[in-house]
Amino acid sequence: MYERFGERAQGVVETARDVARRLRHWYVEPGHVLLALLELDEEDTVRMLGAPAQALRGGVIGALGRGTVAPGDHLPLTGETVAVFELAPREADRFGDRTVEPFHVLLALLSAGNTLVMDVVAAHRVAPGRVLRPATGSPAPTPADSAARDPATAPAHDPYVWAMS
């Protein structure tokens, strides 16, 4: 699953596990991935989302809560987290990038539609259409942009509908 992940994106995967351990969780879910992105790449993540890091952190940690038992050595990924990491290469493909970077993981995280992550991000009025690509500062294309280019890769639903409510 991680063949195309660059060094920094692989670091997101490992840091998500570390974050889950520190919160005393025995699994890794999408909220842990957002916390890992903030930990490893705070400046770019904050710039891309346009929301304060502390507010995002506090919202995710508040929603996840803290566990009471120390987790074991191996922390499994939830199905939602697996979906995020499987979507990341598709996000890289939309940009014509061969290697998956944290930016692509963030876009996959937003398009996966995890309720906890979406609620925290939406609470800070971050719309996925406002997500900026780190190097250029240009807006990331939306799934509608991708569908216009290649209908075969268009999602069956619009994961960005939540932003309009």
Keywords:
disordered C terminus; 8 helices; single chain; 165 residues; mainly alpha; 55% helix
What can you tell me about this protein's structure?
With 165 residues, this protein is mostly helical. 55% of the residues lie in helices and 0% in strands. The protein contains 8 helices and no strands. It has helices spanning 7-22, 30-40, 42-49, 53-64, 79-94, 102-112, 115-123, 143-149. α1 (7-22) crosses α2 and α4 packs antiparallel against α7. 35% of the residues are buried.
Quote the distance from N terminus to C terminus: 33 Å
**How much helix is in the residues?**
40-55%
Radius of gyration: 15 Å
The fraction of residues assigned to DSSP E strands is: under 5%
Q: What is the topological layout?
A:
Blueprint: H1 7-22, H2 30-40, H3 42-49, H4 53-64, H5 79-94, H6 102-112, H7 115-123, H8 143-149
Helix pairs in contact: 1-2, 2-3, 2-4, 4-7, 5-6
Q: What's the gist of this structure?
A:
By secondary structure, the protein is mostly helical. The chain has helices at 7-22, 30-40, 42-49, 53-64, 79-94, 102-112, 115-123, 143-149.
